[in-house]
């Protein structure tokens, strides 16, 4: 599938057109940002790892009946995906209190929540993605009541599936962010809601079960060092990267030679 014009460039990904109006290519960059762009860096290898990790997770979710945008991974940094009209909302799920929840409400760090907590943020960089209520969503027409009901249901199911998947490899799924969009369905000839964007250590908080070591973007946000090693550890435990590969030793200029396990 040939890459056409650039349609959109975000902080960590670029979207390109294809010849098919319903399909686009998602390219994973190495750029890392935090606190809405206040902090920026290139983390070599991050794009390659997120491409693989997100492919793995979205493929598994599809097998569990969760419709998502992934068609197939094309190469080290790119995926062919369904084009979707993205809801301007970040759907956050929290199982353990940390991050902005502890700052905003003073909930002690590490508090295990009785049930998953759903939060909504308005996707607007200039406003630092503010937290919003469902009524804001309905008032401003960002999604309908029915759409949010469906998305909440899918989101909680994804939380169940992913919490189990990560627990099985000794990782706690602390919290994460999802994005959804509406995409054309050729079969029903209607638009349908699908999971979009990515699920990776950029968009999840992942703690080692025993040591609570952070294996996600908090290593970057909090200057903990060894960012790529955290992401690599997640890939390794998911079984998509052979034990001996050390991504920090790979030359990404020539890139293509990191060996991943074949499925
Ligand atoms: P927060 O504690 O900073 O609100 O983040 C909650 C979760 O959402 C955490 O797993 C990181 C993820 N997240 C994103 O993926 N993108 C974002 O822009 C923000 C603010 C959070």
Write the layout of secondary structure elements.
Layout: E1 6-9, E2 13-17, E3 23-28, E4 31-34, E5 39-42, H1 46-63, E6 70-73, E7 78-82, E8 85-86, E9 89-96, H2 99-105, E10 112-122, E11 131-132, H3 134-139, H4 145-167, E12 171-185, E13 190-196, E14 204-208, H5 218-221, H6 227-238
Antiparallel strand pairs: 1-2, 2-3, 3-7, 4-5, 6-7, 8-12, 9-10, 9-12, 10-11, 12-13, 12-14
Helix pairs in contact: 1-6
Bound molecules: thymidine-5'-phosphate.
Thymidine-5'-phosphate is lined by residues 92, 99-101, 129, 175-177, 203-205.
Protein architecture, described:
The protein is an alpha+beta fold. It has a domain at 85-208: 2-Layer Sandwich (D-amino Acid Aminotransferase, Chain A, domain 1), CATH 3.30.470.20. 27% of the residues lie in helices and 31% in strands. It has 6 helices and 14 strands. The strands form 3 sheets. Strands 8, 9, 10, 11, 12, 13 and 14 form a 7-stranded antiparallel beta sheet that branches. A 5-stranded antiparallel beta sheet has the order 1-2-3-7-6. Strands 4-5 form a two-stranded antiparallel ribbon. α1 (46-63) packs parallel to α6 (227-238). The longest helix is centred in the middle third of the chain and has 23 residues, at 145-167. The chain is globular, with a radius of gyration of 18 Å.
């Amino acid at each position: 599938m040939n890459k056409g014009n650039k349609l959109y460039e975000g902080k960590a990904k670029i979207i390109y057109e294809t010849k098919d109006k319903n399909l686009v290519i998602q390219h994973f960059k190495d750029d890392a940002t935090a606190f809405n762009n206040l902090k920026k860096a290139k983390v070599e290898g991050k794009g390659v790892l997120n491409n693989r990790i997100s492919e793995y997770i979205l493929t598994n979710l599809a097998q569990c009946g969760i419709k998502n945008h992934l068609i197939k991974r094309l190469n080290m940094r790119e995926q062919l995906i369904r084009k979707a009209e993205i809801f301007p909302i970040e759907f956050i799920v929290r199982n353990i209190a940390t991050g902005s929840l502890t700052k905003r409400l003073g909930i002690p760090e590490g508090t295990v929540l009785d049930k998953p907590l759903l939060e909504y943020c308005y996707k607007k960089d200039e406003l630092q993605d503010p937290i919003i209520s469902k009524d804001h969503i309905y008032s401003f027409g960002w999604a309908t009541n029915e759409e949010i009901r469906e998305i909440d249901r899918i989101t909680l199911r994804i939380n169940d599936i992913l919490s189990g998947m990560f627990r099985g490899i000794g990782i706690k799924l602390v919290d994460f962010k999802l994005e959804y969009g509406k995409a054309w369905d050729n079969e029903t000839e209607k638009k349908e809601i699908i999971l979009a964007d990515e699920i990776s250590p950029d968009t999840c908080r992942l703690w080692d079960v025993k040591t609570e070591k952070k294996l996600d973007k908090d290593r970057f946000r909090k200057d903990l060092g060894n960012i790529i090693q955290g992401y690599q550890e997640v890939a390794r435990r998911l079984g998509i990267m052979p034990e001996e590969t050390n991504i920090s030793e790979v030359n990404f200029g020539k890139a293509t030679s990191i060996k991943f396990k074949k499925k």
